[in-house]
Amino acid sequence: MGREKLFESIRKGAKGLIAGGIILVTLFGLLALLLFAVYCDEKDGSILVGVFILLVIAGLCSLLIVKGVKLKKHPETHKVFKRNPDLLFQADELFKGIRYQDKYVILSDRVVANASDLTQMAFTNEVFMVYVYKQTTNFVTTTKQLILATARGEITLNIYGLKDEAINRIAGTVAAACPYARFGYSNDNLKYLGQMRAVWDQKKAEQQMGISPQQKQQQAIQRQMAVANGQQYDPDQTFGTQGNVQNYNTQGYVNQANDAQAYSNQTYNNQ
């Protein structure tokens, strides 16, 4: 099942925490031992303070080992499940019908995931913005990532070293799978992202309160009648421009996103 793949990914990360913790504890422990040997020769109190500091650092690093062991035994306690309570369901949906997979991204009909870190996963209809992030130092690119900004956060794909052709292929594949995604980093798209996240939060709140799509439709009818009769009515917040089609960085990425109004009018049925 998909959730077993997810747990396996978390356990893999836990092994990294354990290994890193052991290395750091060993390193700072040896430094403390060497410094203590110097203290024994020179009897300098300031050196003893340094030994104490190194031992404290080693003790803090040991917490990585404790955390790693806990996650290895109980991957379901990972903090990511608090940020994304749907993660187990998404994992099952993802591996129930993979339609595209490479070393960077995995796609099914309903879910997109980071292939190298399965804790980064989202429903395709909750991906609202996709863009390439680059960081350079002395004119040399040191970081290159494809960011999928979702309703709950971000999925970060490390595409360092990839040529533009490969990046275009991955972005185009994501474009075809995520109907509400806008592409490229711009003020308009950042505004759109914030608006879509606000609509998503509202829909989740309504779902938790048990407000049905039929009730929402009735509210819309009442609003339209009030406006037609010249009465005041607080309209639902809707954003965007219907039928808007944009290109991403003039590289042929087609924006298939509907606006926030169309998204808001849809029934939230990911579950």
Your description of this structure?
By secondary structure, the protein is α+β, with helices and mostly antiparallel strands. It is built from eight helices and ten strands. The strands form three sheets. It has a four-stranded antiparallel sheet with strand order 1-2-3-4, with helices on both faces.
Helix coverage percent:
40-55%
Which H/E pattern describes the elements? HHHHEEEEEEEHEHHEEH
Strand order of the largest sheet: 1-2-3-4
**How far do the termini sit from each other?**
17 Å
Secondary structure class reads alpha+beta
Low-confidence residue ranges: 233-259
Number of discrete helical segments: 8
Shape: elongated
Backbone CA Rg: 25 Å
How many E-type strands?
10
Instruction: Give a quick account of the main beta sheet: strands, pairing sense, barrel closure.
Output: 4 strands, antiparallel
- Mean pLDDT across residues: 80
Work out the strand percent.
15-25%
Brief overview, please?
With 271 residues, this protein is an alpha+beta fold. The protein contains eight helices and ten strands. A hairpin with a 3-residue loop joins strand 6 and strand 7.
Show the helix and strand layout:
Blueprint: H1 2-42, H2 45-73, H3 80-83, H4 87-96, E1 98-101, E2 105-108, E3 111-114, E4 117-123, E5 127-137, E6 140-150, E7 154-158, H5 164-177, E8 182-183, H6 187-209, H7 213-228, E9 247-248, E10 253-254, H8 260-265
Parallel strand pairs: 5-8
Antiparallel strand pairs: 1-2, 2-3, 3-4, 5-6, 6-7, 9-10
Helix pairs in contact: 1-2, 1-4
